[in-house]
Design brief:
Layout lengths: L2 H16 L4 E2 H8 L3 H14 L3 E5 L5 E5 L4 H5 L4 H17 L4 H15 L2 H17 L14 H13 L1 E7 L8 E12 L3 E7 L4 E6 L3 E10 L8 H5 L12 E7 L4 H5 L8 E4 L5 E7 L2 H9 L5 E5 L1 H10 L6
Antiparallel strand pairs: 1-3, 2-3, 4-5, 4-8, 5-6, 6-7, 9-11, 9-12, 10-11
Helix pairs in contact: 1-3, 2-3, 5-6, 5-7, 11-12
């Protein structure tokens, strides 16, 4: 929409609110110099944007529209049914994947938004929200997931916001001994397991700490200066999945022609390139670490993929899949 059309809609909404008797289609055609069909489209656009609009008939039987309630700008900034339904979906998803305390925060946001709506608007939106929720239901993934670590996440989030050093009381996976380690917390990575990304003072490098393995977070009095060169997004893109237990390597997979269409619709890694070969097969290349997670994923392609590189992944994949079609 152009600036001029946006200005015209705001102007029309202002007229509808400023007029006690309302604005008719004839009024719109005269005010803006447009045809009746364009006037209808302008009226419909204002109706979509301003929920508290009402239609009334004057003494001559002519239909007019006026806006009641809050000011025009507040009306234009209100939420709609698809937006609230999307928020409800996000709440359901967070309840399933258990990403820290995001579920409670989104639930609180939803309650505040609904409380800010007028009773009339809530009554009008509820059936649409319910219909959208039914039409766009989420398929929740069954299976194991980490337990909630709300107290840990809350303490770490406070430390991240204030750039405070923390002492982690944690038990590394596979170890019976508990450890304590001072770190500079930078952020979180969520996946099948949830991780804290932090700079380890002991190791002098960035490390991943499994949130479910952290028993307690002890705030320290000292603060740290964040590394301006560090990017959480770039750090995450180094790996396939989340865990980063091996070095970054060149990865090359060749998918059979039978699954070529599926492969083209799949994003394996943010840095990937795809090449269609003469026989219809697809070659995917990218750089990442996380060979174990790659192997787990490749098994789901049921032998329709051949690992070209690296050799360590090729050997691991052959142990899990006896036959390939490439």
């Amino acid at each position: 929409m152009s600036y001029e059309k946006a200005e015209e809609l705001i102007h029309l909404a202002t007229l509808m609110q400023g007029s006690a008797e309302g604005v008719s289609l004839l009024d719109i055609t005269r005010e803006f110099g447009v045809s009746r069909r364009t006037a209808e489209r302008m009226r419909d656009a204002v109706q979509r944007l301003c929920p508290d609009i009402e239609a009334i008939d004057d003494d001559g039987g002519r239909r007019r529209w006026r806006i009641r309630g809050a000011n025009v700008l507040a009306q234009l900034a209100t939420v709609n049914a698809p937006e609230l339904a999307a928020l409800e979906h996000a709440i359901e998803l967070q309840a399933n994947v258990r990403q820290g305390d995001h579920h409670e925060r989104l639930l609180s946001l939803s309650e505040k938004l609904r409380a800010a709506l007028t009773h009339r608007l809530r009554t009008r939106l509820e059936p649409d929200i319910e219909a959208l929720m039914e039409a766009e239901g989420l398929a929740m993934r069954p299976g194991p997931h980490p337990l909630d670590e709300h107290h840990v996440v809350t303490a770490l989030r406070d430390a991240i916001l204030s750039s405070s050093v923390v002492l982690l009381h944690h038990q590394p996976r596979g170890s019976k001994a508990k450890r304590r380690q001072k770190v500079h917390p930078y952020g979180f990575l969520y996946g099948n397991r949830h991780y804290l990304v932090a700079f380890s003072i002991e190791a002098r490098d960035f490390r991943l700490f499994t949130l479910s393995n952290i028993d307690h977070v002890e705030a320290q009095t000292e603060h740290f200066a964040r590394d301006p060169e560090f990017s959480l997004k770039a750090y995450a893109e180094r790996s396939f999945g989340v865990f980063q237990g091996d070095e970054v390597q060149d990865v090359e997979w060749r998918f059979a022609p039978e699954v070529a269409d599926d492969v083209r619709r799949f994003l394996f890694h943010p840095t990937q390139t795809m090449e269609t070969n003469d026989d219809g097969s697809i070659t995917v290349r990218f750089r990442a670490c996380g060979l174990r997670e790659m192997c787990w994923h490749l098994v789901t392609w049921a032998g329709y993929v051949k690992v070209v590189a690296p050799k360590e992944l090729k050997a691991a994949y052959k142990m899990n899949v006896l036959e390939t079609r490439v």
